[in-house]
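Quick one: Peroxisomal adenine nucleotide transporter 1 from Hirsutella minnesotensis 3608, structure tokens please.
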Amino acid sequence: MGAQSKPEISPWGRAAAGAAGAVFANALVYPLDIVKTRLQVQVRREDPTLSCDEEPHYTSTWDAVTRIVADDGVKGLYAGLNGSLLGVASTNFAYFYWYTLARTFYINSSKAPALAPSTAVELALGAVAGALAQLFTIPVAVVTTRQQTARANERKSLLATAREVIEGPDGVSGLWRGLKASLVLVVNPAITYGAYERLRGILFKGKAKLAPWEAFLLGALSKALATIVTQPLIVAKVGLQSKPPAARKGRPFKSFVEVLKFIVEHEGPGAVFKGIGPQIFKGLLVQGILMMTKERVELLFVLLLRYLRTTGAAQLGKAPGATSRLARHSATLNASTILTKS
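--- reply ---
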């Protein structure tokens, strides 16, 4: 299979490549992240408990973009950027590291290591890696979501927002709000990367290196599939991590099931898919650019390692000649010294 013929690279190398690709991709499409988050936390105006001076209500992706720029300027589209990039870098580094370790261990311990893991195994490996990554990185996601959904005059720095979460009703555990939903959502990257490996084997069977457009296509297709399946959980997770809507009168949600019930009661069943437009568009771009960049960075790692090995071997090859020259030079000096003394 194509996945098996890829150049060998260490888990650290794949993790660094994945993190680099994620940072680059998310930085490019970050405004879409702001928009989809705002759309997912808002509640319809028809709710009688809300007044017109509450949080702004956006009717579409373009409406959200234009109004955010009008209210906060262009910088409003990049609110919480530092925290978000820190989060995607750490999450993707952890994910690719654990995924590579788990996949390598499975293949090495398999009775038929020449065969690629089945789709079910790919999903399971992705789920394990995603769960481990979420445990360590979810606090950054909580803080970033708070920054993205805060009004311009209420927005604080990364550390100040984290302090605000800790000083809230949940204490330090507030930094892990939405953990259960996040653990359930590990099926998203599991579906994404499982589908990526399977589609690669189907569409580009036997290819060791993918062209940039091929990696982009695979990444986009796999992410679109994962997003459609998991969108209600994504909406619930954002609701858990942001401030509760005005209708809750300051009472935070206790579970993602409670968030989904609230959304269905106030906006109808279809609202669990709100924000799916920018979510899919962002996912297509991010995953496509991420996998395209990751493939290039991995190739750079392989070329760098080969260069270092070649250079090292060349240096070792020169060493015997240099040693013999040094020995001859020392012998000459010794002979001269003896002749001089005599």
